[in-house]
Amino acid sequence: MFKRLLNFIINWSLFAAISTLTFILLSDNPTLTIQNYAFTQGHLRWFIGLLMALFTYKERHYIKNEIERFVRWIKAL
Fold this sequence. Notes:
transmembrane helix, mainly alpha, membrane, transmembrane, two-stranded antiparallel sheet, 78% helix, elongated
């Protein structure tokens, strides 16, 4: 149960990060400054792509595990 909750939290955190960075990219001045380092539009696009790859991998893995759980439950009936 705890592992499923942790996966849920991580997935939604990734989604929130992707949404926030996309919102910054769509703004009038698409830069993000963290501790005096400015991430340009190219940096943000690359980072969003990386987060999307991680998010889709985790989502596929999560869905696969849920299907396997459901099949085991059906077999146990």
